[in-house]
Amino acid sequence: xxxxxxxxxxxxxxxxxxxxxxxxxxxxxxxxxxxxxxxxxxxxxxxxxxxxxxxxxxxxxxxxxxxxxxxxxxxxxxxxxxxxxxxxxxxxxxxxxxxxxxxxxxxxxxxxxxxxxxxxxxxxxxxxxxxxxxxxxxxxxxxxxxxxxxxxxxxxxxx
Length: 159
What we know:
This protein is mainly α. It is elongated and about 65 Å long. The strands form two sheets. It has a three-stranded antiparallel sheet. It has a two-stranded antiparallel sheet with strand order 1-2. The longest helix has 31 residues, at 122-152. 50% of the residues lie in helices and 9% in strands. The chain folds into two domains: 39-116, Multidrug-efflux Transporter Regulator, Chain: A, Domain 2; 118-159, no CATH class. It is built from seven helices and five strands, in the order E-E-H-E-H-H-E-E-H-H-H-H.
């Protein structure tokens, strides 16, 4: 029984600098990632890669959260960094922030994927949390009134 031939790539040696160079198959793809960020994206590509709708991306662009350029064919194109920006915008919207609030945040919030909230946004975060807690309290009052209506069969007076 013979073993299958090995397809292992041996590292090369850089004779000039006495260092081992990793084969291309094991090198980190930094240049590929950098190239991907430099490659212009169509609005459809950006939508597919982020899960956002084309309409949402246009909306973010129109509100100054993204920057697009027009290709020679008239279509919008976006820089590769827009992938990170759209994902960050989606995260902030899911946290309850409006586009106007997001637009007021420092650039670091949009340019680094998964960026921690900057200290400059603490006030906005606390305000958003207070708003959400007020909404929850209001919904709990409405729920209690509706339950009372169902149990008693009449709409209770306002308190």
